[in-house]
Design goal:
By secondary structure, this protein is α+β, with helices and mostly antiparallel strands.
């Protein structure tokens, strides 16, 4: 009798492992952010290349993004299926670093003389420090609803690479004022 129960449990366990849901790769992807997975760290490095910061600013930015990822909240809101394709609608809640950047820009514009070099050009490093300071102190959160596309391939749901706007939303740097 014990052997039969063990066999049944083994079969149920194995079929449970091979039968994935369309939401699984989305959850795994977002959990990689929350767990600061090595794969996701390349996302931070790409951001840093775009920001063109000094080395100590890079480190501050990494810490700010790690906080963003650890505190990332998400809820699966809807699953829509069309054969071997699915759209998973997710509500993301992140720190509103776009708000931080906007506030830093307002401050810079009010105190222009503090952010201008002797030759009349903007002091980009000082302005970057200001932005990072605002981002470190940010407590405002923003919610985004995003759609992740997944496809069934060889009986396994695979997440399509999220577009640039979804990545910006996860990072909290999406400019929602342009919508």
């Amino acid at each position: 009798m014990k052997k039969i129960i063990l066999i049944i449990c083994s079969i149920l366990f194995l079929t449970g492992c091979t039968n994935t849901h369309a939401t699984d790769p989305v959850k795994e992807y977002l959990e990689k952010y929350r767990n600061n997975d090595q794969e996701i760290q390349s996302s931070i490095e790409e951001l840093l290349r775009q920001e063109n910061l000094l080395e100590e600013q890079d480190e501050q930015y990494r810490m700010i993004m790690k906080k963003q990822y650890v505190d990332l909240e998400y809820k699966i809101k809807q699953e829509t299926y069309n054969g071997d394709e699915a759209i998973i609608k997710v509500e993301l809640t992140v720190y509103d670093y776009e708000h931080s950047r906007t506030e830093a820009e307002k401050y810079r514009n009010e105190k222009k003389s503090e952010y201008v070099n002797q030759d009349g050009t903007w002091n980009k490093e000082k302005y970057a420090d200001l932005q990072l300071d605002y981002m470190k102190k940010e407590i405002k959160r923003v919610k985004y609803t995003v759609n992740f596309n997944v496809n069934l391939q060889e009986e396994k749901w695979i997440l399509e690479t999220p577009d640039h706007n979804i990545i910006k939303k996860i990072h909290g740097i999406y400019n929602y004022n342009e919508d």
